[in-house]
Every structure is written in structure tokens, then in C-alpha cells.
Amino acid sequence: MNAAALSSRQLAWWRWSAFTLGCCAFFISFFHRVSTGAIAADLQREFAIGSAALGTLGATYFYIYALMQVPSGVLADTLGPRVTLTIGMVIAGIGSIAYGLAENFTTAAIARTLAGLGVSGVFVCTLKLHSNWFHERRFATAVGAANVSGIAGALMATAPLAWLITVVSWRSVFVTVGVVSLALAAAIWCLVREAPDSGLPTAARVDWRRALAQVVANPATWPPFWVNVGISGAYMTFIGLWAAPFLIHAHGMTPVDAGRYTAFTLIAFALCSPLIGWLSDRVHLRKPLVIAFAIAYCATGVIWVSLPLQSPNAAVLAALLTGFAVPGFTLSWSIAKEVNPPQSAGMAIAVANIGGFVASGLLQPLVGWVVDSGAGLVAGGSADAYRLGIGVLAAWSIIGIVAAYRLTETRCRNVSHMSASPVAFDAMR
């Protein structure tokens, strides 16, 4: 069966089933990513751990996620996104159930690592499906729209989760998420097709070793990686773990109120993310937008550290500005795809994406260590120690600004489709 033999209605069905189920997996992936912040007090109480250990528990997700990005890209380009995504959601489901049933810190860390392993391929596989089903001039728009589902999952892991665990145990929540993940795995297996020219999906035959070597050897691949290190890493560390404790300890908020302000950041991100993808596709530019948003995001880190946020309006404004400023880094995935051959899209996106998770794996425990160490040293005690920890994240985001200036601009076209000479290609940088 090929695209010519399928009606437009059938093609639309396969395109949007792949898009929708990928978005559902995105939702669960982001929920796991951010959830530690909302249940931080419960975890510290039940497992008798401090801030540094809490940071390590939160970071286990990022360690395995970062480690698996390149293998996930290889699997997406060879085994195929349908099979990879199905297996991943089964593993994530088992990990989530085990997390909810964990009786000690070690078991919880292993279970969260397993959940991270399961969802580690969601991002790459979903974007690989988008690459197969959407025109390259619509890719960033599709990614931005899908990102909304991920942000919705993160949003669910803030104030709603903080409220929900006052009604039911956090353990029940994660067991339920695990069961839903297993059901989603079955739906992906039955309903996803990988590309318009495939019936039951068969992955393209790719010499993945050579393809991966070409992606890694391509100098244009690495600036997107470093953009993610600087911006995505700082943002995921902030929103995924330390925003809520910062607001609680530095500004005296309740966990539910802290979750509410965190939610404002995610809502702004959800609103801006598809718009920046659409705008980039519309004006056929990526690099200037990434630069502008990276600078803006770094400035919001300074706002959090320096401004008194006793006023609820000031806290809301800071949260909204953060959410509106951060989505520029999402264009780095499109850039990574466009500077490498289409058949290597999964690997290229994975290499770029790994940067944010490597950084988060380092920053989450680092900020915890700064908070624990600074509490007895700075004048303001715990409150100023948390400000010091957030200041580390603001300084870290400068890495993303520097990298943004090194991005290659292809005007939303894949380099393999361009007739420009290497000299002309270098001039686009």
C-alpha cells in the first residue's frame, strides 16, 4: 500500500492518529518530568531525605533520559517510531506503577529511572512521526502544537497534582498513570502508521552507524545541542523541581499556591510554543527568534532572583514572562533536523535534545547542594540560599545565548534539498 492508493480521508486519519497518540505520550512524559516538585514534601517526609537527595531523585529521570536520547534516535530511524514508542510506554507504565508502590528511597529512584527510560523515546519518536507526516515548512508548527500537550502534562503535575495529593495519595496517582501508559501502548501499536507510503509500518533500512557518525561529525548539529544545554536545561531544572520549593521557602507560599504560580509559567509556555513555531515557519527564519528568546529567558532568571515577590501580581508577572520567554529553544530541534539528511532526522533531533537532559541531570542536584550548603552561609538563611540556587540557573542560561549565535540558518529548508554550494551554505550560518 502506498500514498497514491490511499484516499485523502485515509491519509488524514493516519496522520492525525499518529499526531494525537504521540501527543498523549508527550503528556505522560512531561507529567513525569515535572511531578517531583509538587510531591517534594511528601517524598522528603516519607523517605527522610534532604534537598540534595531530593534533587538526585528528581534527576534520575534526566540521567536515563539523556543517556537514551541517541539510542532512541537510532531506534526511531531503524526499528521505527511505532515499535519504539510502544515498547517505551510499556516500560514507562511499569516504572510508574513501581514508583507508586516504592517503600524506600532506593526503590523509588530505581522506579523513577525506569519510568524515565520508558518515556525517553517519546520525544524523538513523536518528532520523527511529524517529520514523516508533515511538510518541512510545517514541521515547527506541528512540533509547537504537540508541545502544548506536553506542557499540559507538566501543568497537570503542578497545582492540580498538589491539590490532588491532598485528596488521594501520591502513590495512587502514579499507579493510575502507569495503567494509563499501558493502555496507551496498546493504542499506539494498533493505530499508528509511520509514514504515508507505509501500510503496517516498516522502518526504513538505514546504516545507522554511518548515519550517526555523519550527524555527530556535522559541526552544524552542535549549536542546537548547546542551546538545549543552556536554556532547556535551566528551565527544566527550575520548573521540574526547584520552582515550587523556591516559592515556598523564599516567599512563604503554600505548596498549592506555589503550584499555581508554576502553572502560570506552563500556561504561558503552552500559549507561546505553537505561536513561535508558526511564526518561524511563516517568516522562514529560526536563528533570530532563538537568539531573542534566549536573551529574554536569561533576563527572567534575574527577575526571579532580584525582585521582591510578596505581591501576588508581581509573582504572576514573573511566572508569565518566564513562560513566554522560554519557547525559543524548541526551534533548535527543527534546526538540527534541517542541517542533517531527512533519513537521519531522529538521530539529529536526539543529539540536540540530549543537551537539555544532560544539563538537568547536573543542575537538579547542583541546585540542591547550593541550597543545602548556602543555608548556613548567606545572611538570609534558607530564603537567600534558594535565591542563590535560582541564580545559578540564571547564570547557566547564558550558555544558550552564546550557542544561539552559532546556529545555522537554512530558512526552514533541509540542506539535502538545497542547491546551494557549501560556500553558500556556510554563508547562512
The SSE string, one letter per element, is HHHHHHHHHHHHHHHHHHH
Quaternary form: single chain
What is the CATH topology? Growth Hormone, Chain: A
What is the general shape?
A: globular
Number of strands: 0
Low-confidence stretches: 199-203, 419-429
What is the averaged pLDDT score? 86
Radius of gyration, CA atoms, in whole angstroms:
21 Å
CATH class (first level) name: Mainly Alpha
List the helices and strands and how they pair.
Layout: H1 8-38, H2 40-47, H3 51-78, H4 81-101, H5 105-119, H6 122-133, H7 139-156, H8 159-164, H9 170-191, H10 208-217, H11 222-251, H12 255-283, H13 287-306, H14 312-325, H15 331-338, H16 345-374, H17 382-396, H18 398-404, H19 422-427
Structure description:
This protein is mostly helical. The protein has helices spanning 8-38, 40-47, 51-78, 81-101, 105-119, 122-133, 139-156, 159-164, 170-191, 208-217, 222-251, 255-283, 287-306, 312-325, 331-338, 345-374, 382-396, 398-404, 422-427. It has a single domain (3-427), classed as Growth Hormone, Chain: A, CATH 1.20.1250.20. The protein starts with 7 loop residues before the first helix and ends with a helix. The model is unreliable at 199-203 and 419-429 (pLDDT under 50).
